[in-house]
Write a structure and sequence with these properties.
By secondary structure, the chain is an alpha/beta fold. Helices cover 32% and strands 21% of the residues. The protein contains eleven helices and 20 strands. The protein has helices at 16-25, 168-176, 215-225, 240-248, 270-273, 276-279, 316-334, 342-364, 368-377, 384-398, 402-422, and strands at residues 32-36, 49-50, 60-61, 65-68, 78-86, 100-104, 116-119, 123-125, 133-136, 146-147, 158-160, 181-185, 189-195, 199-200, 211-212, 229-236, 255-259, 285-289, 300-304, 307-312. Helix 10 runs antiparallel to helix 11 (402-422).
């Protein structure tokens, strides 16, 4: 362990990349549990979710109209005899013969013998009773407005991949696939302790010498949004016994996070409070202390009570930056949900290259189509800062599927296109 207060030059400090690599190496994936669909939002799948049925289970009509044989309506107008009606949730028991039609509604199974649907707008019917005559004003080719069995998915198809954060769309898909329960990663349990004599909880009486704790609540919201089960253990004064006592309450958590007390000052007591004298064989086993990053230099990482521990600086900006860089990656590792920005990078590069090509062409020849395309690519006029902010939020928080990644990359590409055109 590096001695507190020792002068260590920046050359000896860990890079952010090396620190992150050391942290991730020491993080284990959490166990799994089953959850119902109503509790599955934002959870991370532990296995592929496969369809337990076909959708649709049989060929069904996509429109309200009449089920007929396409050969009977090859020429129009044509007259047919209506021999029945079939609503959604029911089925027509007979077999359609030439010259016959069955009134059908959206989602209803297509009767045997029928091979196309004539929509009701193209039919004149004085009655829908059995044996009544209808006139088809416009025919329909074979297969029109028929959704084949298994069109959406077939039994055994993978609808939701493994290690995917579940969205409302995923929940709806799982329900349609007749999957009532999903195996997910349990929510990582994270404990937070704020330290400092000057810190009080929101709502408590404060003196002019004190400040209201914000770090714990910022981290609570941030980590909860990432899928964690977060507990704020409280505020510990600058006292090793008090800090140690609160830290012991974190036993059973997957990660303990402290804010403040991580630097080299007289009142920075985190390492001392978590020492062998206080915790015995479960004391803090330091992996590293201090990294080559500002703000956030006095970062502490190790294991306490055989579980990962990370000590963040107390400055709110430092706390949140460390959260964005390190805690988000810890959560992704605990949940085995990794963020990949490869597609984002490709999208951004392609947008920028296309903009460069268009602008180069415009210099050679003034072309209205090229000018229009250039204007489309530089849609960021007046709002490049807003687009950049959206991109940063996406990359640091909720990015979890190829579509979002591509869109985010494209937004950055548009900014690059804007800059290229301006140049």
């Amino acid at each position: 362990m590096e001695k507190r207060g020792s002068g260590v030059g920046n050359k000896s400090l860990l890079s952010v990349e090396s620190a992150l690599e050391k942290i991730i190496k020491d993080i284990s994936v959490v166990s799994t549990e089953e959850t119902s669909l109503t509790s599955a939002i934002n959870r991370v799948t532990a296995v592929e979710v496969r369809a337990r049925r076909c959708q649709p289970p049989v060929a069904v009509s996509a429109m309200d109209g009449y089920a007929v044989k396409s050969i009977d309506v090859k020429t129009s107008p044509s007259k047919l005899v209506c021999i029945g009606s079939v609503p959604a949730g029911s089925n027509f028991r007979g077999q359609l013969k030439s010259g016959e039609a069955v009134r059908i509604f959206t989602g209803a199974p297509v009767p045997k013998g029928a091979d196309t649907i004539v929509i009701q707008e193209n039919v004149v019917a004085t009655s829908e009773t059995y044996g009544s005559e209808i006139t088809v004003l416009k025919g329909a080719k074979r297969g029109i407005y028929i959704r084949k069995a298994g069109l959406d998915f077939k039994t055994g198809d993978v609808g939701i991949p493994k290690n995917k954060r579940l969205t409302s769309r995923d929940i709806g898909l799982a329900a349609a696939m007749n999957v009532p329960w999903i195996l997910v990663r349990r929510r990582p349990r994270i404990a937070i302790i704020a330290t400092g004599d000057e810190i009080v909880r929101p709502g408590e009486l404060t003196s002019k010498n004190q400040i209201v704790s914000s770090n714990s609540y910022t981290l609570h919201a941030f980590l909860t949004a990432l899928g964690a089960d977060v507990q704020i253990l409280g505020v510990a004064p600058d006292d090793t016994d008090a800090i140690g006592l609160l830290a012991k309450e974190a036993e059973g958590s997957d990660l303990l996070v402290t804010t403040g007390g991580a630097s080299v000052g007289k009142h920075d007591l985190i390492q001392e409070a978590l020492s062998t004298q206080k915790f015995g064989k479960n004391a803090l086993k330091l992996n590293f202390w201090k990294i080559a990053m500002r703000p956030g230099k006095p970062l502490i990482f190790g294991k306490l009570q055989k579980k990962p521990f990370i000590g963040l600086p107390g400055n709110p900006v430092s706390t949140m930056i460390c959260g964005l860089i390190f805690l988000s990656n810890i959560l992704s590792t605990l949940l085995k949900r990794f963020k990949s920005i490869t597609i984002s990078i490709i999208a951004a590069i392609l947008c920028a290259l296309l903009a460069l090509l268009v602008n180069f062409s415009m210099r050679l020849k003034n072309s209205r189509p090229l000018n229009a395309l250039s204007s489309l690519l530089t849609i960021g006029y007046g709002i490049p800062g807003l687009i950049l902010a959206i991109g940063i939020v996406q990359l640091t928080t909720t990015l979890d599927n190829s579509f979002n990644i591509f869109i985010t990359g494209s937004l950055f590409g548009l900014i690059m296109a804007y800059l290229i055109k301006s140049y």
